[in-house]
Specification:
heterodimer; A: about 900 residues; ten-stranded antiparallel beta sheet; 18 helices; about 35% helix; disordered C terminus; B: about 280 residues; about 70% helix
């Protein structure tokens, strides 16, 4: 439609309509019932919300009540002329609207929360039922009047001027909502009143200070120390890093100064700000977006869009874009209302292996103000959760001071990145190039021949593999372990070190001696035990044979007797030890002795006694002894330890310290030396040693215990450790799920990975130039040893370290039915990895990864999820799509079509009203 | 890479500065306007290429789409402004016109180029180091929602400049407000759908990431306010008598609103708790 817009009065008065396609009666009926809807909604807005917010009750009721009374009288007079079907439709729509609005719209939720938190007087807002009733009554009475005077009201509602006013009002109040600190900002939950007041004071008070700082930023000079630090950084790491440091320090100063200025300002103007707070509270500006009048504006907008759509009905094809846009607006608003009406919002926290079938619903606080526990209707199980951080390269000169710190900088891990470093003191220069970097890598240490990698510090090491159920030599049993056997007794695998030891003799004589070894006389069947009595200068030694005993006297004159009561090959706290005689061929997992300690008082003959458990593993034993001493200390006298170990540590036994040097009765060794080829030898007590050749890789010997046999895979006389690093890409969700399930089943945590980076460093100093390629590995406590790069002169260190920047949080979840069985869809259990931007949707609820709680002394790691039940989303999204499409059609398609149709003349009128 | 970025940044700012001078000359000298405005367009192309260069190198350096920090959004706005300027100049051919409209069109382009020169000053406070991407920003929406909004700012900049011509008699320089209103509407029509789509995409992304499609977060609210201002403009011009001057002023207000949304948001108290603040 070009030219002047037609006079709306003409259109409305003519109810038959010039372009009516569906017939005049329908158009008329549609027109009249829309009257009722629009007006009813309006009335409810004014009254219904007044019931919710006490502040506006008085303000809104009086004028509306008087207007309603006048109209009611008019309606009564006009009753015979009102059409019955329209009334029914009108009242029905009022009721639906009233129900929706009262049925838990978000605008009441926060006020409920405030009431529960004790910050609003209870009962504020009057009776909602009364409000609803009044709304229905008065809305119904409007109907009659509108059939008489509907045109005026209709015309006003669909007028563009009113649209402009409504939009401007919405915009203005939104601006206020951003200028004033809001109570429920950014979807936050209600806070205690005092917390909010402080937040308000600081926030409002900061505005003039921020403005001042922006317009006239104060000079932010760096201290001399900081200048020096920046200068050194620039000299050592380049102009870019120097600038970064200067900017960072300047920014720090600026922020600190601004904070101080804000605090000072707030303190000085506290009274004024508090008065401002009160004024803004009364007006409702501290919670603009949830006041009834702000939301009423949206309802007015809704009504106006309905009005204008009805006014221009029937719609022609040229108006398609315009219709779509406005229908889109209606759909979006409707979606928002549906969403708020049925919204359930809350949170739930879980740790791995835990299941939960209800969540904390913040939108439904119970009488104490705490969130109610709402059932989900199904169970949610957490299979695993973790968090990872980005890693960075930290580069530093450990002995160069820069300000209050050493001279160092950081660099991001990007393959191909290269940068130069210069030592400010020695003028040595380094060029570093990152060849490859992996945030996730499998790091393993292997032993390789020192000769092959140019190192001379190798030690003898054997790589062996253990088999179970071997059917004799060469039989391919089932491999249970593989590891490195070192000459100093260390074995890198899981089979206990006692199973097999590697002895390398320095001389031929020593080697032969080892082959013909017998246990020394003082040694007991299981080794020897040393006990240090209180204040004794030297420990008492006794053979670790059950039944062996020894007596001693302490300097204070007391007579002590120590007896080896029993030997346990595998003592587990809490498990009852077996009464079977220990299998000396077997592998003791945790060898321990029970030692009986008796202390005589001397003259009066009273004897105290107690028993102590002594582990061969020194770290276990020191923990054990510390517990005993603590228990003794607390009680004043030795009461022994609690729990399953109640029978140990009592009496005088907790006063001593012990060391059990375990030596298995059956010693199995691999011996080699000058002139003596590698030989497998078994020493049994009281029997001649058995030997066999073990010099060639592939040699296999039965260990006689638990059906195990050992095969020699590789013998390195000069083994040195070398890193085998396999870069893994980002773990996909399927892989993560699989590894969580695996570790749940086996109880073994998943294989740890860490970050690794391969760098090439070219050093250039007074002594020449050399290039090195090395791997750097990020250390992780308890799992990985970090590996750093050190320059030849030891001054420069490059290390891989974890930053504070989170890379990812995720949780592997499984949906189960209430009785604990996994729910299956298409035969596959419902499992999902929840990450930020990847929520889990099930049963109408959506679970969003909100935060991660790292494992600590208080418990295992866990994740907190935001739980949302929102029925309005499909409507909203549909509305978005329709709206966007409509706008594009109106502003892109229509002018193009017009130009094509109208030719050059139409192009000149490109500035026309859109979609008219 | 940071050094290369800095060099390109400064070259881009210089190119914008020279382009600005060319456009100012085109504005003042009506006789050589055609040639000068063509030269200005070439200058715009060159500056745009340099800014795209900074953007591309930053992308390659970080291995992720660079739209996180304020500096990076400025880059994208400049790209939007540059494209807007090019489209504005080539579709209606205004800068080459010998009358007052040509004069002001060149002024508009000069202002855009001036913005690019201002961008050069940012080099003083930017260290060009790469950033870590927080988990919340790891989404396909990063490459759709943010560019959409920022490109809309670029187009709407042209609209705001045209609105200034509509309302300020001195800038109008002989043309009528109604003539400029046509130009204004043309510019607004291009930019407004991007603004709408960008805002709504933000709601969809918000629902995926934070479980709220609309939380009256300060950045969201200001984007909404900007949308409302331009909505008011579109409706006002349909009222006889309000087209032209009044609606032009509304667009100027909208321009201020864009500025607030983009740059000054962090001054407002609510920004402390905004979900949109990452570093």
């Amino acid at each position: 439609m070009g030219g002047n817009p037609p006079d709306p009065r003409v259109i409305l008065a003519d109810t038959t309509g010039p372009k009516s396609r569906l017939g005049a009666p329908l158009a008329r009926a549609l027109g009249s019932s829309l009257n009722g809807w629009g007006s009813g909604v309006l009335v409810f807005v004014l009254l219904g919300f007044a019931c919710v917010d006490r502040l506006s009750w008085g303000l809104s009721l009086l004028p509306v009540a008087s207007l309603a009374a006048f109209l009611a009288v008019r309606a009564a007079a006009e009753w015979p002329r009102v059409g019955f079907p329209a009334c029914v439709m009108g009242v029905a729509s009022f009721t639906v609207a009233a129900g929706l609005f009262r049925a838990g719209i978000g605008w009441t939720r926060e006020w409920d929360a405030l009431r529960n938190a004790g910050t609003l007087a209870p009962g504020a807002g009057g009776s909602p039922v009364l409000g609803m009733g009044l709304a229905i009554l008065l809305g119904g009475s409007f109907l009659g009047v509108l059939f008489l005077h509907g045109e005026t009201i209709w015309r006003t509602l669909s007028s563009i001027r009113l649209a402009v006013v409504t939009l401007a009002a919405i915009g203005t109040f939104s601006v206020i909502g951003t200028m004033v600190v809001q109570r429920f900002g950014a979807g936050a939950l209600p806070e205690k009143e005092q917390v909010f007041v402080e937040k308000f004071l600081k926030g409002q008070g900061s505005i003039p200070v921020s403005a001042r700082f922006m317009v006239a930023p104060p000079a932010r000079p760096l201290t001399a120390e900081e200048q020096e630090k920046a200068r050194l950084t620039e000299e050592a790491f380049g102009a870019g890093k120097g600038r970064q440091m200067r900017l960072g320090l300047t920014e720090m100063h600026f922020k600190a100064e601004k904070e101080m200025a804000i605090d000072a300002h707030v303190k000085a103007r506290r009274e004024h700000l508090l008065r401002l707070f009160e004024r803004l509270e009364t007006l409702g500006f501290t919670n603009v977006f949830h006041t009834w009048w702000f939301n009423a504006l949206f309802l007015l907008l809704f009504t106006q869009v309905v009005a204008v759509l009805a006014k221009r009905y029937p719609w022609g094809w040229p108006q398609a874009g315009w219709v779509m846009t406005h229908v889109g607006v209606l759909t979006v608003l409707a979606g928002a209302v549906i969403s708020d009406a049925f919204m359930k919002d809350g949170a739930v926290g879980l740790s791995p292996r835990e299941t939960v079938d209800r969540f904390d619903e913040y939108t439904r606080p119970d009488p104490t103000g705490e969130p109610a526990k709402s059932p989900l209707g199904y169970r949610l199980k957490m299979l695993g959760t973790d968090q990872s951080f980005y890693h960075e390269l930290q580069i530093g000169f450990l002995s160069v001071k820069a300000g209050d710190d050493i001279l160092w900088t950081r660099e991001q891990l990007r393959p191909g990145r290269r940068f130069g470093i210069r030592d400010p003191e020695t003028r040595a220069s380094y060029e570093v190039r990152i060849l490859e970097s992996h945030e996730r890598a499998r790091v393993g240490e292997v032993m390789v021949s020192g000769k092959a990698v140019g190192r001379t510090d190798g030690i003898p090491v054997l790589r062996v593999r253990y088999f179970a159920d071997a059917a004799g030599h060469g039989g391919e049993g089932h491999a249970v372990d593989e590891g490195y056997l070192f000459a100093d007794g260390f074995y890198s695998g899981r089979v206990p070190a006692y199973a097999l030891q590697y002895r390398v003799a320095a001389t031929g004589e020593e080697a032969r001696g080892l082959l013909a070894w017998t246990a020394p006389p003082g040694q007991g069947r299981y080794g020897s035990l040393r006990v240090l009595l209180p204040e004794a200068p030297e420990p008492v030694v006794l053979p670790a044979t059950p039944g062996a005993s020894v007596s001693a006297t302490t300097p204070d004159g007391k007579a002590w007797t120590l007896e080896v009561a029993r030997y346990h090959p595998s003592y587990w706290v809490g498990k009852k030890p077996t009464d079977d005689p220990p299998d000396d061929d077997g592998f003791p997992e945790k060898p321990a002795l029970e030692v009986e300690v008796r202390r005589g008082a001397g003259a009066d003959g009273a004897e105290e006694k107690g028993r102590m458990l002594v582990y061969a593993d020194e770290s276990l034993q020191s923990q054990w002894e510390a517990m005993a001493r603590q228990a003794a200390g607390h009680a004043g006298k030795s009461e022994g330890m609690h729990g399953a170990s109640l029978r140990f540590g009592g009496g005088p036994s907790s006063l001593c310290s012990y060391r059990f040097a375990f030596a298995p009765p059956v010693q199995t060794w691999v011996v080699e030396g000058p002139g003596v080829p590698r030989t497998f030898v078994v020493h049994r007590p009281g029997a001649p040693s058995e030997t066999a050749d073990f010099s060639k890789p592939g040699a296999e010997m039965a260990l006689g215990a638990q059906g195990l046999s050992v095969r020699l895979l590789e013998a390195l006389p000069d083994g040195v450790p070398d890193l085998r690093i396999e870069g893994l890409g980002e773990e996909s969700d399927e892989e993560y799920l699989a590894s969580c399930l695996q570790s749940l089943r086996s109880g073994v945590p998943p294989e740890p990975t860490t970050a690794a980076v391969r760098i090439e460093v070219r050093e250039k100093d007074g002594k020449g130039e050399r290039t090195r390629t090395e791997w750097l590995v990020a250390g992780r406590r308890g799992e990985f040893q970090g590996r750093n790069f050190e320059s030849s002169d030891g001054r420069l260190v490059l290390a891989l370290s974890e930053t504070q920047n989170a890379m990812m949080f995720r949780s592997a979840m499984e949906v189960q039915s209430l009785d604990g069985k996994a729910i299956e869809v298409d035969g596959k259990p419902v499992r999902h990895v929840v990450r930020v931007n990847h929520p889990l949707h099930w049963g109408g609820y959506a679970f969003y990864q909100n935060s991660f709680i790292p494992a600590s002394g208080d418990g295992p790691a866990g994740s907190v999820f935001r739980v949302k039940y929102d029925r309005g989303i499909p409507t909203l999204y549909t509305g978005f799509a329709i709206l966007t499409l409509g706008v594009c059609i109106m502003l892109y398609l229509n002018p193009a079509l017009r130009r094509r149709r109208g030719g050059p003349a139409a192009a000149g009128s490109a500035g026309e009203a859109a979609g008219a | 890479m940071p050094e290369l970025q800095r060099t390109l940044h400064l070259s881009g700012a210089l190119a914008f500065g020279l382009t600005m001078l060319v456009f100012v000359a085109a504005m003042l000298l009506g006789k050589h306007r055609r040639a000068l405005s063509a030269a200005g367009l070439l200058g715009t192309l060159a500056s745009l290429a340099l800014v795209c260069g900074v953007f591309g190198i930053r992308w390659a350096d970080q291995d992720q789409f660079p739209l996180q920090s304020r500096y990076e959004t400025f880059l994208m706005v400049l790209i939007g402004v540059g494209i807007g300027m090019l489209l504005f100049a080539t579709t209606a051919g205004l800068p080459a016109l010998s009358d007052a409209r040509g004069g002001f069109s060149n002024a508009v382009c000069a202002a855009g180029a001036g913005l690019g020169l201002l961008f050069g000053l940012l080099a003083l406070r930017e260290d060009f180091e790469p950033l870590y991407r927080p988990p919340a920003l790891k989404s396909i929406w990063m490459t759709i929602h943010v560019p959409c909004l920022i490109i809309s700012y670029g187009f709407l900049f042209v609209g705001v400049a045209a609105a200034l011509a509509t309302v300020v008699p001195f800038l109008r320089a002989g043309g009528t407000a109604a003539q400029w209103d046509g130009v204004l509407h043309h510019a607004m029509s291009i930019g407004f759908p991007f603004l709408t789509a960008g805002l709504l995409m933000g709601a969809v992304w918000g629902q995926e990431a934070w479980a709220t499609y609309w939380g009256w977060d300060i950045k969201e609210t200001w984007a909404f306010i900007t949308l409302v201002v331009f909505l008011v403009y579109f409706h006002m011009r349909m009222v006889p008598g309000l087209r032209g001057l009044a609606s032009g002023w509304v667009v100027v207000v909208g321009g201020a609103s864009i500025g607030l949304t983009w740059l000054c948001m962090h001054l407002l108290p609510e920004s402390l708790s905004s979900l949109h603040v990452y570093n």
